[in-house]
Design a protein that fits this description.
Elements lengths: L5 E3 L6 E3 L7 E6 L6 E7 L5 E4 L4 E5 L6 E5 L5 E6 L7 E4 L5 E4 L4 E4 L5 E5 L6 E6 L5 E5 L10 E5 L5 E4 L11 E7 L2 E6 L4 E4 L5 E5 L4 E7 L4 E6 L7 E7 L4 E7 L8 E6 L5 E5 L2 E5 L5 E5 L11 E6 L5 E5 L5
Antiparallel strand pairs: 1-2, 3-4, 3-30, 5-6, 6-7, 7-8, 9-10, 10-11, 11-12, 13-14, 14-15, 15-16, 17-18, 18-19, 19-20, 21-22, 22-23, 23-24, 25-26, 26-27, 27-28, 29-30
Length: 330
């Protein structure tokens, strides 16, 4: 049985995931050209949060009981900096002044550049899944359910002092995992959710438009081409779709993507410095041209191999990619 993560379960008909054996997840640096592994860093937490700061250092946060930490992007080794009590982290962001914003299961927390807590807010009563800074230096956050109780899926905009500037209406009420990603164009927010819709929100959090054919958990706004790219959340052993939209919400192109043993389940997507598409999710990572030609892939292990259940991707300046892994569905 591969790497001790699986056992035969009667009635399952195959080797199923053994929760008792899920002992680690991995953050990796992948080579830009072929997605080969440059380094691994194993964690005992689910590394759902990842941010690359201006010093090319990595903030990595988990959704289990371990503090968020800073790591070297060149070696993967842990640095001395931690965020005290930031131990159920689903999103993390560092601004240009070195302040760090952490999204936890019930609140948004701001720390200064000495890792001292400045404020916290509980407007998101269920969880903060994504955090970005707007062109006006406000903080835009996405909240989505960690359970079927409480508030659903909405965007909240904060001042740096912690005041709530605006809140979107509930964008989706499907419950768990209905949304996980936003991407910004200056003060404009694009938000993807898993049933059908891609949203464009104005700077006051009101909805400008929605599309009905996105079906994605992953979204990325490419400022070089003014295009929005989404990766679909198709489940099972079927290919998903990568879709391209213009800023009016018109679908411009699409192509199939496979992530290996869980082909269509995308959790994050970027357009890299060469203008290529890199998507990560259950099964690993794939790199494509914007026309859909596959350039490279990374995966190994069986269908439910949790070390390949990738959640986030960032690109180092013009170079390699950093990806994080998960043991649970987020």
């Amino acid at each position: 049985m591969p790497r001790g993560h699986y056992r035969y379960t009667p009635g399952c008909g195959r080797c199923c995931e053994d929760p008792a054996q899920l002992t680690h997840v991995t953050t990796r640096r992948l080579n830009k050209s072929d997605l080969s592994v440059v380094w691994n860093q194993d964690f005992t937490v689910d590394t759902a949060a990842l941010f690359l700061n201006s010093n090319s250092e990595l903030w990595v946060g988990g959704i289990s009981a371990e503090d968020s930490k800073l790591y070297s992007s060149s070696t993967g080794s842990a640095l001395s900096t931690t965020l005290p009590n930031a131990n159920t982290t689903a999103a993390i962001y560092e601004d240009s002044s070195g302040n760090v914003y952490v999204g936890e299961d019930t609140k948004l927390i701001k720390y200064d550049n000495t890792q001292t807590k400045i404020w916290e807010d509980t407007t998101h009563d269920q969880g903060v899944r994504d955090i970005y800074e707007t062109a006006s230096s406000d903080i835009m956050t996405l909240g989505a359910r960690f359970s079927f109780a409480g508030d659903a899926y909405k965007v909240v905009k904060y001042s740096t002092a912690g005041s709530v500037l605006c809140t979107s209406s509930t964008l989706n009420s499907l419950g768990f995992s209905s949304a996980t990603r936003i991407s910004l164009d200056g003060n404009i927010t694009y938000a993807a959710e898993s049933s059908t819709l891609l949203y464009k929100l104005a700077s006051d959090c009101t909805t400008t438009w929605t599309t009905s054919n996105a079906t994605s958990l992953a979204v990325f706004y490419d400022s070089a081409t003014s295009r929005i790219w989404t990766g679909s959340n198709s489940t099972g052993l079927v290919d998903g779709l990568i879709r391209e939209f213009d800023t009016s919400g018109t679908l411009k192109s699409s192509f199939s993507h496979s992530l290996g043993r869980m082909p269509g389940f995308a959790r994050d997507i970027i357009v890299d410095s060469d203008g290529n598409i890199v998507v990560v999710g259950r099964g690993g990572a794939r790199k494509y041209t914007t026309g859909g030609t596959e350039l490279a892939s990374f995966h190994h292990g069986p269908v439910l191999d949790t070390t390949d259940n990738l959640a986030r991707i960032k690109q180092l300046s013009g170079g390699d990619y950093i990806v994080t892994g998960l043991r649970v569905a987020l």
